[in-house]
Sequence to fold (627 residues):
Amino acid sequence: MGLPIGVILLILVAILIYFGVLHRVLDRMRLSDRAALAIIVAMAAGSFVDVTLLRAPVQVRMNIGGGAIPIIAAIWLIATADEAEEKTGSILTALVTGGVIYGLSKILSPDEQFMRISPMLVYGIAAGIIAAVSGRSRRAAFIGGLGGMVLADIFHWIELAVTGTPGSVFFGGAGAFDSSVISAILAVGLVELVGEAREKMVKTPGGGRERGN
Amino acid sequence: MNVGISKRMLAWALVFVIAAATGVVYLYRSVMPVASEAPPGHAERERGYFTVVDEDGTVIFTTGHMVSLGDEYIDENDVKYVVIDVSDDVATVRAVGSLEALPPFPVEPVRGAAASSGAIGIYHTHSAESYVPSDHSESIPGKGGIMDVGAALAERLTSLGIKAVHDTTPHDPNDARAYDRSRRTAASLLKKQRPLALFDVHRDAGPAEAYLKEFDGREVARCMIVIGRQNPKMQSNLEFARRLKDEANREYPGLVKGIFMGNADFNQDLFDRALLLEMGTEQTSKEAAMRGAALLGSVIPNILPAAGPGAGPQARGAGRTIGWLLGIAVAGIFAYLWIATGSWEEMKAKILEWFGSGGVRVGGVGGGSIEGVEGGSGSAAPGPDGPGSEVSGTDMSGSDASGTDAPGTDGEGV
Fold:
């Protein structure tokens, strides 16, 4: 293959850091260490498997690691939420995030350089803000970040079908490094930071603290 | 809950408000240029392209790419420039010196049958880009003339015995998620084709004269290589770009007119030999761009290593990137620990406890927890070691859909 050792090390370091952060995010979903690790291993392995869902008029594909497994995890997180309010909040967060991301894709410049930060990061930050506003729930942030990107892809699919534009839809096509997964990580990270800072502000002398989920 | 107000709480509130305000302003400045005026350092292109001049007013290059303060350019003679001012559609650069020549290629280059271990991946983020003199439009949704230019590059590589995979997946419309969609195509090429290099082929915008040159009596549209500065693998990619420029210009002087380093990512974080190639502009003929792509294809095998691990040309850049990654990770972990624990003493205690307890888990304050990085599973999505799908030749996954009346594709270069 001819990859230099330095590059192999670079890939390994990036993977370790990335999956370490992802593991931390899944841990905040109150998954056990083993379950979080199982999801990460499944995402990494599933990243190599693509499934074609539709060939025409719009080519629609899904990557198992970047699409199917995170989507299943998000649905599972909704189903196992303790309170009905949290379930509703998570779904609403995903819907609003999906709409916002699709809207941003239309109003932002297609010139990536026009942005001080990558559009991909803006989507995750948007999901985090929406989740923070809607209830400071880490679970809602994860579902909003991931589900929002998936919904934005579905809106794109509808746009292609309605306008007859040649195009393709590839759910989670970049595998574990897909923008939907990155968006979920960013959203949880943002809510986590907001939560930690807020908890610092309301921390009582006795040590009692609020905690989001 | 007893919520007493203390100086510490007020300090935290102040920090939070400042951070939030900074974030809002930062996001506003990132998002709003389209809706309102451009932020400092950016400008709208009145003529559809930027003219980049030095401090004496001499034109250095033109491009349809957005040009921002701090962007860099390396010309064909290895003189490096930095953008110091952007006003309307004119950017001013300052020469900051000449680059040292790269050391000789350290390993046996790939040629002919030796290429069986890897492919060259080619795709098009802006699949509608076209050439007005040949295609009669600057934008043809889903099947732009740029596809023929990518095919010319792939055909020349194939004729030299190099496996070339030309992915013609359309990523229309040309909106802010085009690179997000093409990221999935790029990642798919990386995991299935084990590529030696990955090229996102575009055409630029601007006057044809800036790109045209004669080679062997025929008009050829030259190439500009583009690197994203918001890209952790920038150094590796830049080294690869410089090597490609040097080799191309050794065989065909001036074929690569320069390397532009813009304020973006261009999905180049996925791979250390990922480049964006601008082949001509909408005002050059497609045939001239195809000839340029073919000439470029003829030198690419000279700068790619043959099979077998070793010290490839990107090793130095990779080492620097590893340092940055580790530095950022360590800084991030410390920042998070400090926020989570609230004081240096408590943070030190937690770190000591973490090491003392075998590195699995330390109870965070009030129910949070801090964990070591333990999730590395070794195999990653865009890693190049996926099961190789033996697709060779060209036009791997073209869509047959024909586009009509697609909105939102303005066909602008880049």
